Amino acid sequence: MNAYDNQVPGGGRVPEPGPEHVPSRKGDPIDLAASVYEHGWGPAPAPAPAQGEAPAEEARVVVSGPVVPEGFLPRPIGPGPSAVREPWSADGPTVAESVTAPVAGPGPVVRPPSFREPGPLTHVGRKAPTYPAEPTDIPAISGGDLFGALLPDTVVDGGRFGPVTVRAASVRGDGHRYAAECRQDTALVVRTGELLLVAVADGVGSQSHSHHGSHGIVRLLTRQVARKAETLLAFLRSGAETDFAGLMNRLVAAAAGDLAQEAERAGLPPKSYSTTLRALLVPADPAVPFRGFVSVGDGGLLRLREGGWQNLEAAEGGEDGALISTRTDCLPEAYEHARARLITDTRPGDLLVLCTDGLALPLLKEAELRTWLGERWGREAPGLAEFLWQTQVRVRSYDDDRSVVCLWEAAP
């Protein structure tokens, strides 16, 4: 299915929305309340002259609606609904020319050949997923859990920090959307001094309050990292991996302890907050090539380099880094299983992809998805809206929440 096909069951296309309440003003040459979105986007034909009345001289009048002549809109650069557009052409039509049209004739509004309607999310594979592509039912407050009901379906974030461009997104999975359940994943982008902390967390689906755990652990880890930011930065500058790992593991343990206390204060067992965690620390100084990494539980850390994907967490004995750890260690209980280390071989132009298993599993198992994302992420960083559209590419049989943070290292 083409990403820009805007079709509905039974054929045809989704009708374009029109203005619902357009006030009319005396003296207007046309009725502004009349829709110009019907019958091929064209304005309504002029009324026929009364019997015995001479036809009125054809005039050019202002027409409400998206009347855009050929060549007026700048053309998009690149695919996707948020394509960047080139500046306005210096020799293009004037504003007056762009908003006038003959009264007579129901001719369609002209749109440039580069116009693309934002269509449904694309998918890879022979068959599309059976779930609807967009959110359906909305989670309700259940058992007094206001926090879960207030979680948005989708979040997107990003910016630039030192040598990296950051894009992050967390999206409720098809399964949770269909069941009207809240998003259990989260993604974090935060700066503390000269250190950038990015993280993803995946609440364990079998635990009813795991969304509290995933959102809580990234918040509590941020507090712990902020207290030791200068020390962590010094370890990254010097490449002291053993010192970094020891301190980072202690910070994860402290955050896990805080999370367990929050669960107990809510009258719940700490296990009900079960969540995985993955985090990266990036110095603002471009001269420091080291990146700090810590993880608990499943998920993924991958790198796209010169068009090829690498699994930086390939299990021992895996073939070509094509396997991913399936251990289910979870915080706050399994804090002693935190694994921290340094990524010491970063190069300009690399892309690091930190994600929960909702994206890690299909990305590692489906070659077509690696190709699809590699073609789009292997160049410069996309805009926020386009990145969000790309991260939601659908793969049949993978319906879990999906959280991802991408770090584009500055090109040489």
UniProtKB/TrEMBL annotation:
Region feature (Disordered): 1-28, 98-132
Pfam families: PP2C_2 (PF13672)
InterPro entries, sorted: PPM-type-like_dom_sf, PPM-type_phosphatase-like_dom
Span of domain PPM-type phosphatase: 172-379
Biased composition (Low complexity): 99-108
Basic and acidic residues bias (residue ranges): 18-28
Organism superkingdom: Bacteria
Name of the protein this chain belongs to: PPM-type phosphatase domain-containing protein
Species lineage: Bacteria, Bacillati, Actinomycetota, Actinomycetes, Kitasatosporales
